[in-house]
Amino acid sequence: MTDFIVINFQVLFSGLALGSIYALVALGFVLIIRATNVVNFAQGDFAMLGGFAMVAFLATGVPYWIAIPCALVAMGIFGLIFNLGVYYPLRHRNYLPVIISTLGASIFMQNIVLYFFGPQPRPMEKVFKTSGIEIGGVFMDTQYLTILGVTAIAVAFQYFLFERTLFGKKLQATSQDKDMARLVGIPVATMIAFTFIYSAILGGVAGILVSPVLFVSIGMGSIIALKAFSATVIGGFGDVTGSIVGGLLLGVVESFGAHYISVPYKDAFAFLLLFIFLLVRPQGIFGEKISEKA
Questions:
Q1: What is the gyration radius of the CA atoms in the chain, in angstroms?
Q2: Measured at the alpha carbon of residue 159, what is the angle toward residues 158 and 160, in degrees to the nearest 5?
Q3: Opening angle at CA 48, ends 205 and 121, nearest 5
Q4: Measuring CA to CA, which residue among 116, 291, 125, 293 is closest to residue 218?
Q5: Measured between alpha carbons, how far is 247 from 147 in angstroms, rounded to an integer?
Q6: What is the rounded average pLDDT of the residues 244-253?
Q7: Helix axis angle, 43-59 relative to 188-214, nearest 10°?
Q8: CA distances from 257 to 230, 250, 261, 271 (A)
Q9: Other Cβ atoms closer than 10 A to 238
Q10: Could you give the dihedral angle defined by the CA atoms of residues 18, 229, 211 and 4, in that order, rounded to the nearest 10 degrees?
Q11: Where is average pLDDT lowest: 1-10, 67-76, 135-144?
Q12: What is the four-CA torsion angle of 86, 92, 95, 96, rounded to 10 degrees?
């Protein structure tokens, strides 16, 4: 019985760490959805670019702890370029052309990375050299602990930014009603640009954290994006808290499904959970039903 409990805690710990990655990318999804009413299907590729940015800086001999902020600054700059090149020219069109442009940008980014880095996955060192700690028979890998810790810090920072600062209030006002925000003097274009910058940095953080676990590869962004988008739907489309809870839940379900049923089909369990939610509670955990009168 004791071994059974230990094993389950071990699987739970791994699932929460994996789910934290989905939650970080899902946060980026939600922020852009709230700011522009558009789903950025290139959000997962921000994680891929973050991983390859680390690979590029480390290849030049930059120390690991300096390469991290350098990669995040690069991701912030890329987020601004993405906003100006992909979203801004189509900002007055309906959502469909913008969504198509994000899909095109995703394909373009993957091919650019393929051209410069090749198709071979790249390994990356852990943030901390130590292997981990053991508590009550449960081994906690340092990389997984780092993922959980950084995710907690990111969520706390986001809460402080949006709920306790004037800048955050302006961001919320922009996401709720752009026209009204303009009327009260809020620079809407600047707020949206910041959202893209911040979302790109969040994606970069997720990519840097998960790279020592999954390797850095061109396809890593696509699968992370699908899981993160599923997390936003499960948690409640456009809900910040829901994206975090949905990401963690998805990671735990995937981890337990892989352990008790089948590792090769672990991705299927996440999408099965999404299918169940779409049937039973399509508005998600924190979503509300919206009724329309004909």
A1: 19
A2: 90
A3: 120
A4: 116
A5: 13
A6: 92
A7: 60
A8: 17, 10, 5, 12
A9: 20
A10: 10
A11: 1-10
A12: -70
- Model confidence band, residue 288 (pLDDT cutoffs 50, 70, 90): low
**Under 8 Å between Cβ of 48 and 110:** yes
Give the C-alpha separation, 192 to 174, whole Å.
Answer: 8
Give the pair of three-digit tokens for residue 74.
Answer: 């690069």
The closest of 268, 252, 247, 288 to 11, measured between CA atoms, is: 252
* Cα 275 from Cα 239, distance rounded (Å): 19
Q: Taking the chain, what is the end-to-end CA distance rounded to the nearest angstrom?
A: 57
273 SS3 class? helix
The answer to whether 55 touches 182, Cβ cutoff 8 Å, is: no
Do residues 229 and 130 lie in contact, with contact meaning Cβ atoms separated by under 8 Å? no
Beta bridge partners of 140: 133
Name the amino acid, one letter, at 53.
A
Task: Tell me: pLDDT of 291 over 50.
Answer: no
DSSP secondary structure, 44-85, as one string: HHHHHHHHHHHHHHHHTT--HHHHHHHHHHHHHHHHHHHIII
Nearest to 39 by CA among 267, 228, 224: 228
At 134, is the secondary structure helix, strand, or coil? strand
DSSP annotation string for 115-156: HHH-SS-B----SSSS-EEEETTEEEEHHHHHHHHHHHHHHH
3 state DSSP class of 1: coil
**Beta strands 132-135; 138-141: pairing state:** antiparallel
Task: Record the pTM.
Answer: 0.89
CA 261 and chain centroid, separation: 26
